[in-house]
Amino acid sequence: AADKIRLIPQDFFAELCEQIIQHLNHKIPGINTAELCQRIQTSGVDINIGDLAKIANSLSFLFSTAAKNNLSTEELVTTLGSGISTLPKHALQVIRHVWNEQGKAIAVAEDAGDMATVGQFVDMKWKLGVAMSSDTCRSLKYPYVTVTLTVADPSGQITDKSFEMTIPQFKNFFRQFKEMASVLETV
């Protein structure tokens, strides 16, 4: 990961660290590595989303472990500087700054208890479509609903999951949501 971190410009690395800290503090549901990766690539850096996700996971583990062990800024930077594959100087500077500014907030959030490890719902989008014809059937006129769920997994990576439903399936889906809403109103 240290080799890939060397490729990331300091401003993008700082933004990634900030997003991770915000995620660990439960201020945002996750880190949108796809969007950040695209911006880094647009700036001329050759990095793929898989490598950026690994870096984000490593940094998230680093910050949460440091919070659980209540490390000071100097202890964290000294530990990172003495590693086998040392981090580049700009990365250590960013980590020092971010931990110095916001490290205590993570420690407080970690003491409050960990969030569930199943992920977090972020957003849902849907659209109604009609399949007019196909190469095997001239006249379908088949309505369907496409649903896209945006979910942050436990590590904070934001992903989209899409699926299609027939109208009867969508009506059942809607009925189940109404049931959940009525149960939640009684709580």
TrEMBL record:
GO terms for molecular function: NF-kappaB binding. It comes from the Eukaryota. Residues 120-187 form the COMM domain. InterPro entries: COMM, COMMD4/6/7/8. Scaffold protein in the commander complex that is essential for endosomal recycling of transmembrane cargos; the commander complex is composed of the CCC subcomplex and the retriever subcomplex. May modulate activity of cullin-RING E3 ubiquitin ligase (CRL) complexes. Down-regulates activation of NF-kappa-B. Inhibits TNF-induced NFKB1 activation. Belongs to the COMM domain-containing protein 6 family. This is COMM domain-containing protein 6. It comes from Sinosuthora webbiana.
